[in-house]
Amino acid sequence: MVTADQTYADPSALACIYLHQPEKSRQMIAWRAGATGALAVTHHGKAEITNAICRARFTGDLDEFGLESALTNFAADFADGHLIQADLLWHAALNRSAELSRIHTPTLGTRAADVLHVACALELKLRHFLTFDDRQGKLAAAVGLRLIKLT
User: Fold this and answer.
1) This prediction's pTM
2) CB 128 within 8 A of CB 145
3) Core-most of 9, 79, 100, 104, by most CB within 10 Å?
4) Is residue 116 a contact partner of residue 96, using CB atoms and an 8 Å limit?
5) Alpha carbon distance 42, 87 (integer Å)
6) Per-residue pLDDT for the chain (151 aa), expressed as one digit of tens each?
7) Is residue 128 helix, strand or coil?
């Protein structure tokens, strides 16, 4: 069984725990309930999830109560140890991201942020990668990360 402490979850996938996206939220919540250990989240990932939650208020997908509830639940997952703040050398992650872009983006068409998340997983020496993004998943697999497929 894959444990959370071996896995890099793409922040857009992880945000589905805090924002209602019918099928994706169900899959993420079920996976997280069965995956033991703390899930590492980079500073960039934390900012990305916070922005996704706040943007849902802007788009009307959350009301003010929903916004505060989602932000509180996200913070509580850090406080309770379900999520941990991962620290890494950002210059190394950015350099690796540029290297991965040169090698893989011409054939996979991955976006810069998606490449950065794969680079972060590699820099954190994680073995598994969880994403709903097909191109990002192809990149993760191409560099040797084991892709977690949710169904």
Assistant:
1) 0.94
2) yes
3) 9
4) no
5) 6
6) 688 999 999 999 999 999 999 899 999 999 999 999 999 999 999 999 999 999 999 999 999 999 999 999 999 999 999 999 999 999 999 999 999 999 999 999 999 999 999 999 999 999 999 999 999 999 999 999 999 988 6
7) strand
Computed over its alpha carbons, how large is the radius of gyration of the chain?
A: 15
Q: What are the φ/ψ torsions at residue 39 (nearest 5 degrees)?
A: -95, 125
Domains of the chain: 4-148 (3.40.50.1010)
Contact indicator for 128, 109 with CB cutoff of 8 Å: no
Written as six digits, the tokens of 5 are 């402490």
DSSP label at residue 143:
T
- In what side-by-side order are the strands of the sheet with 128-130? 7-9, 128-130, 146-148
Token digits for 90? 């950002």
Token pair for residue 82?
A: 């379900």
Place of tokens 């191409």: 142
DSSP 3-state of 50: helix
> What's the full length of the chain, in residues?
151
Take residue 97 and report the two structure tokens written for it. Answer: 């991201």
